[in-house]
Amino acid sequence: MPFFKIKHITNYRYEAPVRDSANQIMLYPLKDEYQKVIRHELNISNSPEVDVFIDYYGNEVGTFTQHEPHNQLSIYSKIYVETSPKRLPLDDIFVTEQWRMLEELSQETPYIDYLKQPLFDGADLLLDAAMELNEKGDSPFKIAVKFCNYVYENFEYIKGVTNVDTTLSEILRLQAGVCQDFAHVLTTMLRFTNIPARYVSGYICPNKNGMRGEGATHAWAEAYIPGYGWLGLDPTNNCIANEKHLRLAVGRNFSDCSPVKGVYNGPSGHILEVNVSVGYDDEEAFDDPHFQPKEVAYSKPQPSVGDGKNSYQRYLDDMLIQQQQQQQQ
């Protein structure tokens, strides 16, 4: 069984002291029979007390506050995880029975949340693509795999053309994006065909062939398959997400799963650095980090007309978007 070590460092440096920094972290791996957490070391500058709770979707969430003035905030997470492969669906239940089972689930909690899809420009085109791929006699498993392949084949993997605030309409117009965009498109297509789908945030571990997003924070989708449960699908790499995909959190979309986010009282100028490394049981691989650095230039919130928000509200919105953008590349 694979044994992995993951290091995830988030570091904020501020242009002047800030205070009342309220933060939420989703850096606790999900725990089940396929993912065993051996050890988790979490160190935060100034050692604040972290309150931990389980959210509606079953994720472990930590919250903490830094009241005293500070010029820097560092969050260091080091995880040791053992994973086990999950068998693939046998797909041996009559197809009509599987679709009947999904129809019944559509009125049950929590599947209702994983079937809702807000309206967006371009929805008809994506719905048409989903319906065209949905051939008579296909099982939910076969359709889910087809949709995963469709996203992989029809969307180009390009870093920097989108961010966490990019809408589905913009992703469809660009026909490009990164893992979080691919995951959002796939979950939408699955929901169009009444297959519950959820967004997954986590890490993908390196292999000899190389994969997009390896050694970094990553995102993929899970489809609910009758008689089986949640099946992981990685449209960024067109593969089943299994023992090399480490799950941190699940939800409807990225906003439910952001690894680190928060607000503070002080000047908006800051630099955010994210450093993630993923390795196997050998220390050399673990100590060779895969960097995800990005600097946010010092800037002041600019006045805006007609958005109904004051400058402080706009500054908080901008800061939150900048923070979240670094977590999912």
UniProtKB/TrEMBL annotation:
Which keywords does the record carry? Answer: Hydrolase, Protease
GO MF term list: peptidase activity
Highest taxon in the source lineage = Bacteria
Question: Is Protease found in the keyword set?
Answer: yes
Q: Which SMART domains match?
A: TGc
- Domain annotation Transglutaminase-like: ranges: 171-237
State if RNA-binding is listed as a keyword.
Answer: no
Show the segment(s) annotated as Disordered: 283-311
User: GO biological process annotations for this chain's record?
Assistant: proteolysis
> Do you know which InterPro entries this protein is assigned to?
Bac_transglu_N, Papain-like_cys_pep_sf, Transglutaminase-like
Q: What is this protein called?
A: Transglutaminase-like enzyme, putative cysteine protease
- Which organism does this sequence originate in? Chitinophaga costaii
